[in-house]
Specification:
START-like_dom_sf, about 25% helix, Polyketide cyclase / dehydrase and lipid transport
């Protein structure tokens, strides 16, 4: 999973990064394989946002956690919920489904 998060650009095989109209593909800012990947913002209106994924070996796969980092002013609760929902959908649904889960 670290390899997929470290190369999230849209591709023809196992395409999982399905962006909405208000999103752009993230730039991978840092990779510490196999345990950490940091993305730039997917949202041009908030270029300060960063998503940091932590990966640990899990039962038959990887346990993935992510954290959102932002500069001040912090996003409001509605925007934070939107971002959380989108990151969770991309990783815990779209990417996960490509593994047959």
């Amino acid at each position: 999973m670290c390899a997929d998060l470290a190369a999230p650009a849209p591709r023809t095989v196992r395409h999982w990064l399905r962006l909405t109209d208000d999103e752009v593909a993230p730039t991978v800012l840092q990779v510490e394989a196999p345990s950490r990947v940091e993305w730039s913002s997917l949202w041009p209106d908030r270029p300060d946002l960063r998503v940091v994924f932590s990966l640990e070996p899990g039962d038959g796969g990887s346990d993935v956690h992510w954290a959102l980092y932002a500069d001040a002013p912090l996003p409001g609760p509605e925007h934070t919920r939107h971002v959380a929902r989108r990151v969770s959908t991309l990783v815990f649904a779209d990417l996960r489904y490509t593994y047959g889960q």
